[in-house]
Amino acid sequence: MSLTGLCQVCEAATASHACDRCGRAVCDDHWDERARACSGCAAGRG
Ligand SMILES: [Zn+2]
Ligand SMILES: [Zn+2]
Hints:
By secondary structure, this protein is mainly β. It is 9% helix and 17% strand. It has one domain (1-46). The strands form 2 sheets. It has a two-stranded antiparallel ribbon with strand order 1-2. A hairpin with a 4-residue loop joins strand 3 and strand 4 (37-38). This is HIT zinc finger.
């Protein structure tokens, strides 16, 4: 999986993580390090 491009949540910052649960590329602001998932998955969705 490539991490080039923008965060697929905010589409404003460069993506630096890839969520294993939903496959989205997300920026630091939308990454939950504890859950090791994007903010959406870490919140219990999906
Ligand atoms: Zn973002
Ligand atoms: Zn996710």
